[in-house]
Amino acid sequence: MLLKDTLKAVVLVGSLCVIVVSPTLVAGEALIIGGNVAYDEPPHSWVDSCSGQITGANRVVLERAFTKAGVAITFDKPIPVSESAYRTVISQINNGEVDALKALPRISLGSDFLFSNEPVAMIKESIVFLKKHKSKFSEDLANVSGLNGVAMELGENRQQLIKKYGWNVAVYQGNDKHQLITQLELGNYDYIIMGTHKFHLLQRDFIKNDSLQSIEIHDFYREFYFVVKKESTAARYLPLIDKELKAMRDSGFIDFIQNKYLQIWINKKTCGNND
What's the pTM? Predict the structure, then answer.
């Protein structure tokens, strides 16, 4: 996976957080969650315009997990978006400045690292297309292999999906989602692969003409895991965090809080404007 694609994947679920702890956690101390890259990635993570701090569903999930585990946490200030943000965070954990990474895909970090068994986030994916072309698509997506698709990035998980079903998917050379929709309208592509939540946000932008439709890929998720270094202070909490993450997923809490924060993002106001 390219560095740029890895960084995009990380911030999709929480702007890449790290837990910073002292070698020995004493009574009254709190784990500090930092390394938050300041991307807007609702409902998972974004920077609150009033407080300047990271907010979103992932913060709530992490706070709940550590509260249930009996461990206090605080959140460090966000890291400005840059091409070097991912390298900076990895350097911090390798240098011992931080002890854990909140949400990463299962990439190779070396034998010194441990991944949680339970994902912090499972990102649902959808096929997005123009409503006027809905006759091209069936609910089981059986006919997608004969169409031309596009995605803004093709990480390892998406590559596995494409290979499994024999889909023809190109990588879009750009960052403007609105231009990507224009490519659909021009007929250059038949569909886009994107996160289901991102589609809901795009719908808001295109609500006037209501031109988009989607079909969720039910058997496919992009998963992101809590990561610690072996023998670190944070590693002792890994079994407890696994337990709480599983409980929250099984109970439906994670889906609930993601839907809640999607609505918070859609309805959010500029700081100081409460009208």
Answer: 0.73
